[in-house]
Prior knowledge:
The protein contains four helices and 16 strands. The chain is an alpha+beta fold.
Amino acid sequence: NPKTPLPSSEAPESASPHPLGQPGWAYEIRYGQVATEYKFDELGAKLIAEPGEAELINGDKLRFAEETYRPLTIGEKAVERAERVLEQKGILKPGQKLMPYLVEDSAGNLVEAKGGTRRVYRHPTDPNKVIKVYDPEMQPGYRSRPDKIVKLMQRERAFEGYLQRFRKYGLEVVENDYSLAEYGVVIQEEVQGGVKVDEYLTRLTAGGKNAEAASFGHRLDGIRKEIEALRDDMDKLMRERYDFHFHKGGETGEKVPIDFGETKGTRRLNNCRVVDASPEPRIRCFDW
């Protein structure tokens, strides 16, 4: 009976349409507490992560909205599907390809920007935005476990909402357009005119602005202190909810559930930039 839950060992592969599926059929896949429903419609397969809510040790709550992701078909590449969808939406011209977004590495060389499960591309028409594409082939085993992608997407959006509390430190998260998220495509605001966090702190110190440097450093320490206080609790939450093990450096190589790209033992937040503003500079983060 295709309506009944399927054992995880028999979970459908990443294919659409699937030999076990046709419009109206559904399966449930469960790893950890959250159930991922595998549905089939006229467009093929789609994964739906159920919504939920979790309370942290400090009394705050993480809210997980329902998330949908369509797994890649057999032989399909993430960027090729993204280009097809973006062309259908009029963002790309017919036959136009996405161009990688280049950043400097620690040695000063230009490299393609990417994270644990996403590649970053330039927006073809808006220089103030970038396009992030989830690519399951970037992590071993994700191609056959697309439920991990939909869980990461749900986790990212839950933390995006939670991080609004860090505005008291002058930290903001950039705006994201999730209208194409079911195809693994997120259009994100690009941080314009910012400098790296550690570089900004060095400039203040070198310029003799010791009071400003101390104030800015205090804000960074406040951010770190709050994240560290929730580290074990959030790790437990991710492990129980998704069967993810961030603390151990497992899933996507992250060491902590909220990751601003911090270099251990420093105040460097590689996923954030400082943008001058009055009365105090703002810290804008584009990945967490």
